[in-house]
Design goal:
This protein has 178 residues and is mostly helical. The chain is built from six helices and two strands. The protein has a two-stranded antiparallel sheet. It starts with 21 loop residues before the first helix and ends in a 15-residue tail after the last helix.
């Protein structure tokens, strides 16, 4: 009764110190890799490669090819982002013993680790885009159909820094008509 079965593998448990075991860390790394590939599939779903005005490959597949592309990029890969959030939540609350002060301390540490770099990077992108929209050599690449960054209202800046994703693409950046 007291002897352990040699065929049963013990499930690694997280240490009380907060460090992940080597096996758990490897599993999370593999999962992150698969999720990153999923995000790439989402963003490359309907990409056409044009060379000299001609589209390379099949731009609009049909039949089995369309079904397979939709299944991988629009069904399976769409689980990547929610799984990233699930993984982040697991790692955030792993070994967490609840108290209001510990929760506040943990949120404050994440604020410094995530929000401040996010706002700084978004601000850098806004400055880069403003310069690129006003330099003659690059203006045509960054003008697009949206308002130029220098014509933004305060609302537009806050929206771009905190709400919308900041993109250097002229068709994704800014909001026209505001």
């Amino acid at each position: 009764m007291g002897a352990m079965d040699p065929n049963v593998t013990a499930v690694p448990s997280p240490s009380r110190s907060g460090a992940l075991g080597a096996e758990v860390s490897e599993r999370i790394t593999l999962l992150r890799f698969l999720l990153i590939v999923g995000v790439v599939f989402i963003y490359t779903y309907d990409v056409e490669i044009k060379v000299a005005g001609e589209v390379l490959g099949v731009s609009r597949p049909d039949g089995l090819a369309a079904f397979t592309r939709d299944l991988i990029s629009q069904v399976i890969a769409r689980t990547a982002v929610p799984l990233f959030y699930l993984l982040a939540g697991y790692l955030f609350f792993r070994n967490f013993e609840w108290s209001a002060s510990r929760y506040a301390t943990k949120l404050k540490s994440r604020l410094h680790a995530l929000l401040i770099p996010f706002v700084c990077w978004s601000g850098f992108n806004l400055v880069f885009l403003a310069v690129a929209q006003n330099v003659a050599l690059t203006k045509s690449y960054f003008s697009g159909v949206n308002n130029p960054v220098l014509e933004y209202s305060f609302y537009n800046y806050v929206n771009q820094l905190l709400v919308s994703r900041v993109s250097l693409s002229p068709t994704n950046f800014g909001s026209s008509g505001i």
